[in-house]
Amino acid sequence: MKFKDYYETLGVARTATVDEIKKAYRKLAHQYHPDVTKDPAGEEKFKEIGEAYATLKDKEKRAAYDELGRHPSGQEFKPPPNWAGSQGGQEYSFEDVDFADLFAGFSKGRQHSQQRHNMPIPGQDYELTTQITLEDAYQGITVDLSFTVPEHDHQGQLKRVPHTFKARIPKGVTNGQKMLLRGKGGKGFHGGPDGNLYLNISFIPHKLFRVVEHDLFIDLPLTPWEAALGATVKVPTLAGEVNLKVPAGTSSGQKLRISKRGMPKFNQEHGDLYAVTQIVVPTSLTDKDRELLQALASSSTFNPRAHFE
Amino acid sequence: MQIDQTELIWLDEHHEVSLDELIELSGLSQQELNHLVEIGALAPNNPTEEDLAASELRFNSHCIVSIRTLARLKSDFELEQNALGLTLVFLERIRNLELQLRGLESTK
């Protein structure tokens, strides 16, 4: 495992008091807490900060940490053979665990030594984000979920164990939907319940459709003459093309509703599809086009800026 | 291993959880959750006196997300009980504003 310098993480001296450690933690927490900051790196950074604080604020954990000596952060590291035994009465293989597991294990070892070994400890909750396409959300999909959790094996040794299973995401989910899979988090200890898994559903951006809850939006480019004269145009939906009647006199930015062609809802209903009109002009004109447009310009009395006057 | 849909709970406005489930899932105590209900920061779907007395209140399951965030903030920033209600109101306001913003960005 790689050594972590918890004092460096919190930016405090190794001789810092508990109050100084708490103050440094609070300052960093305001800066990096994932529920406070929008910094995408904040979550990982706060994990390091929280891990450092959890160890250094606890007198016994801090003493055990200090006993490990001083090493550069990131250096390959293995605790001395009797370190865990002397601290928590529990031995670890130190294989397949990371530095955070070491102190989580130490805490449980200490609880063991305090003869609280029968006290149920609930398993840890986990949160995962899975990305699915709009088509997947429309039909429902089975996704493979995979993450690693620290667990004690039959010998009581702490190891990181892969958790892999399939979850059926039913149709009707929305972008940003959260779901709860009970008992699919970390294993509980001493009869404590297993933790839960919180699953965030995130839609991969679609090349044509934008989604708001269960409604879909699609930009519908129209020629000026289709918009002025009206037309029937083909519009793609997630269930195949439909013919949409564009009324004469349509302007840009109008939303034409195509009923029940949006995303499915959990109760079997569907949202709507909105075609947002965009009037598009040709970037190059043929001689004939130019002639016709010039004729229209000469004869038309339409003034779209009449309200300026 | 196949997970059937009975194991999967939707966290949204259309599904409910009981007060007991909320206590179990949120990390907040019954006393803290009752305080949030009393000050109006957390709105049950069936706020009758009988339900309140019998602790049979039910909530939209989406509140689990905000309440878990609140429990995290309480633990990580050592928030006092009086700050919990205010924080929950702001969390919900941010959630609604982000929802509106996402809608506006998608429809413009």
**Named CATH architecture of chain B:** Orthogonal Bundle
Terminal residue distance of chain B? 43 Å
What's the SSE pattern of chain B? EEEHHHEHH
Alpha-beta content class of chain B? mainly alpha
Order of helices and strands of chain A: HHHHHHEHEEEEEEHEEEEH
Tally of helical segments of chain B:
5
As an assembly, this protein is: heterodimer
> What would you report as the Rg of chain A, rounded to the nearest angstrom?
31 Å
Helix content of chain A: 25-40%
What is the count of distinct domains of chain A?
Answer: 3
Strand order of the largest sheet of chain A: 6-7-11-10
Topology:
The complex is a heterodimer of chains A (309) and B (108).
Chain A lengths: L5 H5 L7 H15 L9 H15 L2 H9 L15 H6 L10 H15 L12 E7 L1 H6 L1 E12 L5 E12 L8 E4 L15 E7 L5 E4 L2 E8 L1 H6 L1 E5 L6 E5 L8 E4 L14 E7 L7 H13 L10
Parallel strand pairs in A: 1-5, 7-11
Antiparallel strand pairs in A: 2-3, 4-5, 6-7, 8-9, 10-11
Chain B lengths: L1 E2 L4 E4 L4 E3 H8 L3 H9 L10 H5 L4 E3 L2 H15 L3 H27 L1
Antiparallel strand pairs in B: 3-4
